[in-house]
Sequence to fold (227 residues):
Amino acid sequence: KAGVTQTPRYLIKTRGQQVTLSCSPISGHRSVSWYQQTPGQGLQFLFEYFSETQRNKGNFPGRFSGRQFSNSRSEMNVSTLELGDSALYLCASSAEQGRKGEKLFFGSGTQLSVL
Amino acid sequence: AQTVTQSQPEMSVQEAETVTLSCTYDTSESDYYLFWYKQPPSRQMILVIRQEAYKQQNATENRFSVNFQKAAKSFSLKISDSQLGDAAMYFCAYPRSYQLTFGKGTKLSVIP
Fold:
């Protein structure tokens, strides 16, 4: 089975632009979640989707949004980019949503640099 | 709120030796899970080991084992016979409400 695939791996944008990141989960997995990783704040939860519905959202401004498609692939969008949005964005998938102790499988992330 | 604390930002170990990474957490739940994840330079987070809180027995996966002390809310990771490929960031994580809360991580260096 192929793992979680994130594209692109690297992205450079300027302030004020918007960006879309893509995540393809492991085949058969229906839950996709997103995390932001920075040296200062560490790993922070952005949001989680299951069957095309956002079930949980972290403490991020409305500029951060996402969606999930019927094939479970997910995209996240950041509008009006700020310098502080520079980070590694990690996507994770799991087979079921909400089952206690469910293992999450991560992709290699998209490194976003905002200039 | 759940918090996860890793008090060792960096550690090093000689190849073939044993090292223990510390993690403490805070929760009011009695039934929960805990994870250790490894993040090598490739950046992919890899699940190392999972512990169920209601199980008294410490989880073990090959050279990786945990020392789970529920009353003390401590969850340390022991790596035996350390190998060069073990060099990475290690994160302790607590799952709840469809999300993981991570510690700040411990950077492990392996000295040949």
Notes: The longest strand of chain B covers residues 88-96.
